[in-house]
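User: I've been trying to design a sequence by hand for this structure and keep getting stuck. Would you show me what you'd pick, starting by listing the structure so we're on the same page?

Assistant: Good idea, let's start from the same input. This is the structure you sent:
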């Protein structure tokens, strides 16, 4: 199971902030067997050369209908030529796609999906743009994940579910998995909202642990509530009293128990490593994979 471990690209943030290239890290990790990669939005990404490309794409989107942009995405990854209004931009995208050959890329960002938006039109356009980026990254297996790191306190469940249904319905001609992740709220509540809103769940058990090792909800409670069909991805990182570690090791999270839950349910989604970033993320990832394989 863990031999197919992938990564979330925010583990590269320290290296990118000191000059490393996103595409070179992507190629290096792919060569070491990390084939699934979730491109995580953030300052580190926007400050990279790939982030500059993303910003140019976002600016160019308005020049194309939804159908035209989708057609360009499809041809970029098929290696076929396609006439566009931004030839140099999409040549750069095609060059990136060549480097990403053999990898499965998805897209993830922070978004306040748990509460009603203050400006629905702006909110909608943010999701439309994110969906287009997710599709561009991998037309064959597109996925967009949202995580709400801001909403706290009592949740308006009806508003959250309405948001998910609205987001999922956008760009119906762009096939993709739409997912959310448990963060500040309990995993069981996030699961309940995901199912009601028609979204899949990305599960991160580490997020259920407080600094003292107690949980916001017991992992067993979640695992008895979830169906494998509800899950699209499971994230792996370790937490101790010192915080989230830079490589997976002993701590609060019982990885062997998670592996048993997934195996008995014939889980087929991806497994993604999300360590705390360091200047040597590949070595951290390789040691983390070895630790998990030994579980």
């Amino acid at each position: 199971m863990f031999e197919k471990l992938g990564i979330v690209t925010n583990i590269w943030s320290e290296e990118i902030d000191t000059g490393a290239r996103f595409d070179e890290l992507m190629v290096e990790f792919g060569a070491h067997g990390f084939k699934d990669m979730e491109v995580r939005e953030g300052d580190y990404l926007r400050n990279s050369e790939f982030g500059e490309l993303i910003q140019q794409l976002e600016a160019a989107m308005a020049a194309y209908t939804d159908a035209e942009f989708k057609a360009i995405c499809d041809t970029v990854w098929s290696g076929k030529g396609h006439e566009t209004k931004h030839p140099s931009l999409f040549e750069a995208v095609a060059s990136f796609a060549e480097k990403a050959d053999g990898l499965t890329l998805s897209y993830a960002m922070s978004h306040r999906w748990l509460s009603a938006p203050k400006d629905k039109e702006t909110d909608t356009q943010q999701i439309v743009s994110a969906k287009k980026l997710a599709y561009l990254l991998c037309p064959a297996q597109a996925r967009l994940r949202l995580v709400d790191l801001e909403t706290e306190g009592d949740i308006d469940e009806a508003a959250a579910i309405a948001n998910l249904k609205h987001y999922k319905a956008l760009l119906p001609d762009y096939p993709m998995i739409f997912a959310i992740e448990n963060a500040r709220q309990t995993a069981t509540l996030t699961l309940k909202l995901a199912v009601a809103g028609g979204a899949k769940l990305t599960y991160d058990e580490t997020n259920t642990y407080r600094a003292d090792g107690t949980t916001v909800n017991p992992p067993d409670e979640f695992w008895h509530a979830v169906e494998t069909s509800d899950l699209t991805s499971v994230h792996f990182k370790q937490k101790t009293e010192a915080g989230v570690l830079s490589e997976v090791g002993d701590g609060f999270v019982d990885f062997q128990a998670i592996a048993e839950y997934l195996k008995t349910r014939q889980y087929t989604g991806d497994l993604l490593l999300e360590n705390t970033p360091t200047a040597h993320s590949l070595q951290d990832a390789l040691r983390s994979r070895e630790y998990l394989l030994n579980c």
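That's my pick for every position. To get oriented when you compare it with your attempt: Residues 2-294 form a domain with the TIM Barrel fold (CATH 3.20.20.150). The chain is about 45% helix and 15% strand.
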